[in-house]
Amino acid sequence: MIRFEDIQEKVETYMKGADLDLLRKAYVFSAKEHKGQTRSSGEPYLTHPLSVAFILADLKLDLTCIVAGLLHDVLEDTLTTREAVEEHFGKDIAHVVEGLTKISRITFNSKEQQQAESFRKMMLAMVDDIRVVLVKLADRLHNMRTLEHLSPRQQERIARETLDIYAPIANRLGMAKIKNELEDLALKFLDPGGYQGLMQAMEEKRKITDEFIKEIQGTLRAELEKAGIACDFYGRRKHLYSIYRKIKRQRIEVGEVYDYIAFRILTSSVKDCYGALGIIHGLWRPVPGRIKDFIAMPKPNMYQSLHTSVISDKGVPFEVQIRTHEMHRVAEEGIAAHWKYKEGKGARDGDANVQWLRQIMEWQQELKDPREFLNMVKVDLYPEEVYCFTPQGQVKSFPRGASPIDFAYSVHTEVGHRCVGARINGKLQPLRTELKNGDIVEILTSPNHHPSQDWLTTAKTPRARAKIRQWLNVDRRNRSVDLGKTVSDREFKKYRFNLRKHQGDGTRLLAVLHELGCASLDDFYAAVGYGKIAPRALIQKLDPQARVHETAEGPIAHAVKKALGMSGRKVTVRGLDDALISLARCCNPIRGEPIVGYITRGRGVTVHSERCPNLEKLLYDPERRIEVAWESDDASRFEVRITVFSEDRPGMLAKITSVIAEAKSNIKNVEARTFEDRRGEISLILDIADLKHLELILEKVKGIDGVYHVERQVA
């Protein structure tokens, strides 16, 4: 059990002149507030904040982080207020503690939309202050270490959350030591059998492993000393989750895993790193394609090291990582290595991880759909990097599957917008080409070129996707304004409505535009172009006496409206009383089933069923999604196509049509086919009232003897 004195001793080893009175004050405050509370293990609750603070001190973090670790649960689990924390410990510490409280109140569930929204809230609470991230990871680490005291259901939920969210965040911030332990602990509860089997297999190999490590260490140390390379040398087994993941990915047995041993060499200089690599390759045969130079090309999380895999004289493969002592500190602690007690200063603004956290803030402002935000962040949380070069030799890293479009936007936004192709390794290639490690990429541009919607399916990096989306949104608005102006002018002429007269009274016009949800006349035109507002909404408010001065609707206009499904109002659009509405022909939604509105330029709002196969593609642009609902008192009927699979025998069609007629549905069309194996397939278009009516018909048809299956057809 961690004592306060353990934390104090740890702090004194690296933080000279630390305010130990503040540290003790936080300990006493936490002990008083948590008095009488216990954990699921039965231990006093205070053991948890003490353990979290010790983990933070072990990372050599500043006093604010450690004090926040002692206080991190007082707002959540006691009656303490933020004001009380601020009064005793200042705004800075209160801010961090409040950020941690926001995260602890976020729950993750199985619904994609809600889970994505929860993830957004959690990331925003973290990126507001990097110290919130660091304390939260320490908090999660101690909770995982004591997870066995919770119910199996809670264990599984927390372990899954840890593996999916917290371990990847630790990895992205370069905190390998914490990431590895989180992954191993999560595995213990998500697959207890697999974990125990792996532990047992590693234990059985321990003696052979220890002997092998000792042998390799002896050989390598002697050769490095001969070359005058001073270094520290460590041999270890890879952490369990990395071995487990390899077994699952390659579908092999535990006994088939051979490269589970890794050696680490820590040198004094970069020159010695490369010297050691040469000696290793002189002693043992390197595995082709397994040499990685992360010193020359650091990972986005600041990780630097040389990696190589070699095969020993006995045929046993093993990995060697070579780096300097400073690189090792960064590799183990990541962003925490830059958030040390250094005259009150934290991580540098130029730090890659600080920039990543700030990028998240930009994404959340640009992306309204939480699922899109989640997808953006996932690209950076689960990376498989590809390293490419500019013609000048600058290294750029991308997620696997990236294209020249991603490369172009990494150079400059305008280069991205104007790119038309790329010269990769001297050869002309299209924009859809997948980049590979070592590619030298030169982007070709044209002043008349611009992004298109299909670029979003090719681009992989969050930056490129965000910039493409920004351009498309601006372009879409401009075209909508032009279309809206054309449509409005035509409508104004029909009503003999003089807009210029009302523009003279700017105050009245602006007030009406605000009533319609528009900040300006251009906003109004854009809304008309999108189909959100009909021009007559403005006419009726500014000139209620205006009347149409054209002949009544002709047969062609009536036919067009009927074709668009706008002859009867069956759906309401939230916030838009005068929107043009049509039911999508691809899925033919019917009253009672969940629906989604999609703003279609020039056709108003198109209503789709939530089960529509085209919906995912359509809602790739979340700004065009709009809430819709069925009219409660509407008596409209709906056309639905169903297909009946049955035996091919006399009277079957008569039985089916009779049952449908009894259910009070008109049959508008029937098509029947028969097959050689005496099966029949009957397609019918029915006139039905709502979803319940359809379900009743389907149930009755299913009950007919000889009917195998009945289903509703969606395009």
Structure description:
- The protein is an alpha+beta fold and 715 residues long.
- The protein is globular.
- Helix 1 runs parallel beside helix 3 and helix 8 crosses helix 17 (352-366).
- The chain has five domains: 4-189, Hypothetical protein af1432; 199-338, Beta Polymerase, domain 2, CATH 3.30.460.10; 470-542, no CATH class; 555-630, no CATH class; 638-712, ACT domain (Alpha-Beta Plaits), CATH 3.30.70.
- It is 50% helix and 16% strand.
Count of the domains:
5
Terminal CA distance reads 64 Å
User: What is the average per-residue confidence, as pLDDT, rounded to a whole number?
Assistant: 82
Major sheet description? 6 strands, mixed
CATH homologous superfamily of the largest domain? Hypothetical protein af1432
- Number of continuous helical runs: 30
Q: Pairing-aware structural class of the strands and helices?
A: alpha+beta
Per CATH, what is the topology of the largest domain?
Answer: Hypothetical protein af1432
Radius of gyration over alpha carbons?
33 Å
The count of β-strands is 21
Unreliable runs, pLDDT <50, ≥5 residues? Answer: 340-350, 550-568
- The CATH architecture of the largest domain comes to Orthogonal Bundle
Shape: globular
Residues in helix, %: 40-55%
Please identify the top-level CATH class of the largest domain.
Mainly Alpha
Name the beta content range. 15-25%
